[in-house]
């Protein structure tokens, strides 16, 4: 049990510590730990969690942490995952305030975020490919394309709230993909 | 900037109820995680409750960006700490993440309780491409931001390096990211936004 709690802590700690660029940057790092490393979830389960997480308001990293922790280690697991997500960088911020104030406009600090971005972009792109490939294998090409294209236009062009887009996809899936 | 944690600029004491409402509201109305909640937070903290001025708020935001991890909870926790000490921090933090964390657990647990039903299985399939679109859009966002910071050439070089290291050599992303952070610390911080004419 202790080992499991330690793993939950570590997975969230490392993903959030290296996720420069806020919550969204931690998603692919977290996927790497949860799906590829510890095998707590499949790609399909992870994608479902991301979609539903985005349909709810509030910060994404804590929503994922809360559920992953709960799924793997119950309420205590959830608390550990949330702690590992929130505490390290917040403690750093409070403790290093003076130092950070001096360096907040330093080009080195800006460079840190910038150097890491392309790597996060690659991780996100690989994850996108995984999600679509998985969908192609389970739902077929036609449904995947249809939901993907309509979903893209709904979210990005028509600016429909993710709540309705995810709800729409759930209803579509329940009716046409439930066999 | 003196950290007078007990009192706000105009001398009023911070009410914990206000602190909770401010961060609850900005958390619950912010979709898309992270940065989307920042303007809402600014509205509550600066405009509605005037706990600090715009400059102090942007300073805190800049600090937040210098550190890794979720933006939202760092902002909420730090502002709460500065305004009302440890319990202010706990209050603002809980208000910003707890409601949706509980909602998330409830929603997925209920859904998984029925996972043997074919229509629930269908729902999981239907939502997968949407997750793909969401993450794909984020990926493109990060490419665009890299481009504006590093320029196309360096962005493509870094993307190629990342691809080879992570996908072909299967090295853990943590190691690659740590290497890039060390590189940034050793660099002169030369980026497109701070380029000098005389150099090279």
UniProtKB/TrEMBL annotation, chain A:
The chain crosses the membrane at residues 75-103, 115-132, 138-155, 162-178. PANTHER family: CHROMATE TRANSPORT PROTEIN-RELATED, CHROMATE TRANSPORTER. Belongs to the chromate ion transporter (CHR) (TC 2.A.51) family. It comes from Tigheibacillus jepli. Keywords: Cell membrane, Membrane, Transmembrane, Transmembrane helix. InterPro entries: CHR_Transporter, Chromate_transpt. It is a multi-pass membrane protein. Pfam families: Chromate_transp (PF02417). This is Chromate transporter. It is found in: Cell membrane.
């Amino acid at each position: 049990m202790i080992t499991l709690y330690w793993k939950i802590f570590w997975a969230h700690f490392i993903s959030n510590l290296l996720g420069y660029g806020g919550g969204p940057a931690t998603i692919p790092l977290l996927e790497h730990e949860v799906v590829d490393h510890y095998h707590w979830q499949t790609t399909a389960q992870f994608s479902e969690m991301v979609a539903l997480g985005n349909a709810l308001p509030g910060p994404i990293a804590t929503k994922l942490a809360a559920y992953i922790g709960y799924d793997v280690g119950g309420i205590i697991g959830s608390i550990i995952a949330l702690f590992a997500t929130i505490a390290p960088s917040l403690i750093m911020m409070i403790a290093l305030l003076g130092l950070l104030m001096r360096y907040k406009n330093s080009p080195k600090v800006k460079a840190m975020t910038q150097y890491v971005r392309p790597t996060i972009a690659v991780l996100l792109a690989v994850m996108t490919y995984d999600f679509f490939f998985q969908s192609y294998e389970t739902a077929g090409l036609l449904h995947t394309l249809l939901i993907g294209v309509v979903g893209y236009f709904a979210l990005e062009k028509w600016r429909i709230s993710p709540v309705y887009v995810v709800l729409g996809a759930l209803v579509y899936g329940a009716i046409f993909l439930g066999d | 900037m003196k950290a007078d944690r007990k009192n706000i600029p105009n001398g009023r004491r911070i009410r914990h109820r206000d602190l909770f409402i401010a961060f609850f509201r900005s958390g619950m109305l912010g979709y898309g995680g992270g940065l989307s909640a920042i303007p809402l937070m600014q509205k509550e903290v600066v405009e509605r409750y005037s706990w600090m001025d715009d400059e102090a708020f942007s300073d805190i935001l800049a600090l937040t960006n210098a550190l890794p991890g979720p933006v939202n909870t760092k902002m909420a926790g730090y502002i709460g700490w500065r305004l009302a000490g440890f319990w202010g921090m706990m209050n603002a933090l809980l208000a910003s993440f707890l409601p949706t964390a509980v909602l998330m657990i409830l929603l997925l647990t209920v859904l998984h309780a029925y996972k043997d039903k074919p229509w629930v299985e269908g729902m999981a399939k239907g939502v997968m491409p949407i997750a793909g679109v969401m993450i794909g859009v984020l990926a493109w966002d990060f490419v665009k931001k890299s481009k504006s910071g590093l320029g196309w050439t360096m962005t493509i070089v870094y993307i190629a390096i990342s691809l080879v290291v992570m996908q072909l050599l299967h090295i853990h992303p943590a190691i690659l990211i740590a290497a890039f952070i060390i590189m940034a610390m050793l660099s002169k911080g030369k980026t497109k936004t701070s380029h000098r004419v005389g150099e090279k």
